[in-house]
Write a structure and sequence with these properties.
This protein is mainly α. Among the domains are: 4-100, no CATH class; 108-234 and 257-276, no CATH class; 470-589. 64% of the residues lie in helices and 5% in strands. It has 31 helices and four strands. It has helices spanning 18-30, 34-46, 51-60, 62-74, 78-100, 102-111, 116-129, 131-141, 150-158, 165-170, 177-190, 196-205, 209-223, 231-243, 280-295, 301-314, 331-338, 340-353, 356-369, 372-375, 384-388, 394-407, 416-427, 443-462, 474-480, 486-496, 502-513, 519-536, 542-553, 559-571, 576-585, and strands spanning 4-9, 12-17, 257-264, 269-276. A two-stranded antiparallel sheet has the order 1-2. A two-stranded antiparallel ribbon has the order 3-4. Strand 1 and strand 2 (12-17) form a beta hairpin. The longest helix has 23 residues, at 78-100. The radius of gyration is 36 Å and the shape is elongated.
C-alpha cells in the first residue's frame, strides 16, 4: 500500500508518499529546520497511515529512527518533540503488530527452509517476534508432514531471545517427547538463567531418563551449580525474582500488557492469556510458587510467598485475570485457610518491604485465625506480628493490635503497651477527622477501626486479661464517652467500668446522668456503673451518689431509666440510710 499526501510548503502544493514524508522529516531534523520537520511529522500522523507501514520506514533505516528518538527525548523544540513522540508511538504500535501477526510468523517459519538469504532474514524476524513466534514454531515441530523443515526450525528456536523463555518453559508440559527434547536443547543453548528452575523440574520429575539427562546437560550449559539445588528451591527463587520485579523478567516494553503462557493439554499447543502489566509479575510469582509446590508439596515457603503475591496482585485494584475463572476465591480466603505459619512468612515479607497492602491483608487474616500460641511466631529472631505494631501505616498498626487483643494472650510480652496505645489511638479516629481518601485510609475505615478497637478493648477488659493493661488508655476512654458516635460512647463506658480508679467510675456516672445523652446511652452507662461498683465498690463522691438517687426516687424518671438507675444504685452497696429514705418516701401511712 502506498500513501500519498498533499503538503503545502511556501505556497507550493506537493504530492508526497509516506516514504517521502519520512525522509524529509529526518532531513529537516538534521539541518535544524524544526518548523518544517514538525510539519512533515504531523502530516504522517494526520494521514492515519497503517502503523505497520510507518514502522517499515523506521525499520528500513535504523539510524534515521535513532535521530527521531533523539528529537523526541532531547526536546530542543517542544512542538517537534511532541510530534515525534506521537510518531514513535505509532511506529512501536506497528512494530508490535508486525511481530505478533500470525500470518507473518507462519510465512517466516516456512522461509527458514528457503534460500540462505531468506533463512537469515526469517531467523531475524522470528527472533524479533519472540514469544509470539514460539507457538507456531512448536506447532510446525509437531507436524509430521513438515518433518523436512524441522532441522531449520530447531536451529531458529535455539537462537531465540529472552522473552521466548516463558512460552518455551510452559511447553515443557507437552507429551510429544521429540518436541520436548528440542525445547530442552534450545533452552540450554539460549542460556538464560530463568529457564533453570523448569529444566531442573524436568531433570527431577520426568518419566523419561533420556529427557532427564538432556535437561541436566542444558542446566550445565547455563549454570552447573543449579544441579545441586532442588527444583522447588529454584522455582521459589524465580518466584521471588518476579515478586521483586527483576528487570530481566519484565514483559516486553513496547506494549502495555504482559503474556502468561499455558499449555493447552486438550489441543496440545500453547495458549496465551493477556494480562495487565500492573500485576503481571505478581501473577507470575504465584505460578512459580505453584510449580514449586508441585515439585515438593512440603516446601512451605512457597505458600507464604504465594499469599503475599496474591495480596500484592489485589493491590493493583483491577479485576483478576480471566484464567482465574468464575467463583475464584480472593486472597483473604486463601490466607485464612493457610494457617499462622505461612501467614507470618507473608507478613515478615510485607514488613520488610514496607508493603502496606500485603501487611494489612495478612494481619487481617491473622486476626481471624491466630491464637495465643501462634501470635508471636518467630522467623529467625523476629516476630512479624509484633513488628507490625510499629508499621508506618495506621491501618496495619491498628489491625495488628486488634488481632493480638482478640487472640487474648495471657502471658506478658514486651509489646503489650504498643497494643494498648494503638487501640487507644484507633478509638480517636473518626470520619470527621479523616483527611485521606485512599484504599488504605478513608472516612469509612476511620469509623470502622474505632469501633473494632473499642470492641477489642472491651474484650480485654471483660476477660480481665493479665497481659494487656488498659489503664494507660483511661484518659482517651474518658474523652470517648463524649464522642458523637453513640456506639463509641457506650463501648467506652463499658470499658471504663473495668478500670479501678475513681476517675473512671466517675466518668461512667457522669455519662449516665447527662440528660443530653439518649436513653439507650444512659441505660448502658448505668449498667456499666453497676459492673464498676461490683468490681471496685463505690468510688463516687456523695454529690454524684445523690444525683443517681434522684433518678431512682423521682416519679418523673422514665421507667426503664429508673430501673437501670436502681440496679446501679444497689450495686454501689451504700449504707442503709439511703435505702431507708427511699422506702419511707413512698410510704402512705
Amino acid at each position: 500500500m502506498v500513501f500519498v499526501f498533499a503538503i503545502v510548503l511556501s505556497g507550493v502544493a506537493l504530492a508526497q508518499t509516506l516514504e517521502d514524508n519520512y525522509n524529509d522529516l529526518i532531513h529537516y531534523i538534521k539541518i535544524g529546520r524544526f518548523d518544517l520537520a514538525t510539519g512533515y511529522a504531523q502530516s504522517i500522523i494526520d494521514s492515519n497511515a497503517a502503523p505497520e507501514e510507518v514502522f517499515a520506514q523506521a525499520e528500513a533505516k535504523p539510524q534515521d529512527y535513532a535521530i527521531l528518538i533523539k528529537a523526541k527525548e532531547e526536546a530542543v523544540d517542544a512542538n517537534l518533540a511532541a510530534a515525534c513522540g506521537k510518531l514513535v508511538e505509532i511506529i512501536e504500535q506497528g512494530r508490535f503488530i508486525r511481530k505478533a501477526d500470525p500470518k507473518v510468523i507462519v510465512e517466516e517459519i516456512t522461509r527458514l527452509s528457503g534460500t540462505t538469504r531468506g533463512q537469515l532474514a526469517a531467523m531475524k524476524r522470528l527472533k524479533a517476534a519472540g514469544e509470539y513466534a514460539v507457538m507456531y514454531m512448536l506447532d510446525a515441530m509437531a507436524d509430521k508432514s513438515r518433518q523436512a523443515e524441522w532441522p531449520n526450525i530447531y536451529t531458529a528456536l535455539e537462537q531465540m531471545d529472552r522473552d521466548a523463555i516463558r512460552p518455551m518453559v510452559a511447553a515443557l508440559q507437552t507429551d510429544n517427547v521429540g518436541v520436548k527434547a528440542e525445547i530442552i536443547r534450545a533452552l540450554g543453548k539460549i542460556g538464560y538463567p530463568q529457564a533453570l528452575a523448569n529444566l531442573k523440574y524436568v531433570a527431577e520429575k520426568d518419566e523419561s531418563p533420556e529427557l532427564r539427562t538432556l535437561a541436566e546437560e542444558s542446566i550445565k550449559n547455563i549454570d552447573a551449580a543449579a544441579l545441586q539445588i532442588s527444583a522447588s528451591q529454584l522455582l521459589y527463587r524465580l518466584a521471588e525474582d518476579y515478586y521483586y520485579h527483576t528487570e530481566s523478567l519484565a514483559p516486553a516494553a513496547d506494549v502495555n500488557f504482559g503474556n502468561l503462557w499455558f499449555w493447552d493439554t486438550q489441543n496440545a499447543r500453547l495458549s496465551r492469556e493477556q494480562v495487565d502489566k500492573r500485576y503481571f509479575n505478581e501473577l507470575m510469582a504465584m505460578r512459580c510458587c505453584e510449580w514449586s509446590l508441585k515439585a515438593d508439596p512440603a516446601f512451605g515457603q512457597a505458600i507464604g510467598l504465594w499469599i503475599a503475591s496474591f495480596f500484592k496482585a489485589e493491590s493493583a485494584g483491577i479485576e483478576m485475570p480471566r484464567y482465574f475463572g468464575q467463583g475464584h476465591a480472593d486472597a483473604m480466603v486463601y490466607a485464612t485457610t493457610a494457617g499462622p505459619e505461612y501467614l507470618h512468612q507473608a507478613l515478615a515479607r510485607g514488613i520488610k518491604d514496607k508493603d502496606a497492602h500485603v501487611a494489612l491483608g495478612v494481619v487481617e487474616a491473622l486476626s481471624v485465625t491466630a491464637g495465643e500460641s501462634s501470635l508471636f511466631y518467630r522467623i529467625g529472631t523476629t516476630q512479624p506480628l509484633a513488628q507490625a505494631l510499629s508499621f508506618d501505616t495506621k491501618a496495619v498498626r491498628f489491625s495488628a493490635a486488634i488481632a493480638i487483643a482478640n487472640a487474648g494472650p495471657r502471658q506478658s510480652f514486651a509489646e503489650s503497651r504498643l497494643v494498648v496505645s494503638n487501640l487507644a489511638e484507633a478509638i480517636t479516629q473518626s470520619s470527621e477527622t479523616a483527611t485521606d481518601d485512599t484504599p488504605m485510609w478513608n472516612a469509612a475505615l476511620a469509623d470502622s477501626y474505632a469501633l473494632r478497637s473499642a470492641a477489642a478493648m472491651l474484650k480485654i477488659a471483660q476477660t480481665r486479661n493479665p497481659a494487656l493493661d488498659l489503664s494507660p488508655a483511661e484518659a482517651i476512654l474518658i474523652e470517648a464517652i463524649k464522642d458523637k458516635r453513640p456506639q463509641i460512647q457506650m463501648l467506652a463506658g463499658q470499658i471504663l467500668a473495668y478500670l479501678s480508679t475513681p476517675s473512671a467510675q466517675k466518668a461512667v456516672a457522669v455519662m449516665a446522668l447527662a440528660d443530653t445523652n439518649s436513653k439507650d446511652i444512659r441505660i448502658t452507662a448505668l449498667a456499666a456503673l453497676a459492673v464498676s461498683a461490683k468490681l471496685n465498690k463505690c468510688l463516687l463522691d456523695d454529690a454524684t451518689v445523690d444525683e443517681i438517687y434522684s433518678l431512682v426516687s423521682s416519679k418523673e424518671t422514665d421507667p426503664d431509666l429508673r430501673s437501670a438507675a436502681a440496679a446501679a444504685y444497689g450495686s454501689l452497696n451504700l449504707p442503709s440510710q439511703k435505702v431507708k429514705t427511699l422506702i419511707l418516701d413512698q410510704s402512705r401511712s
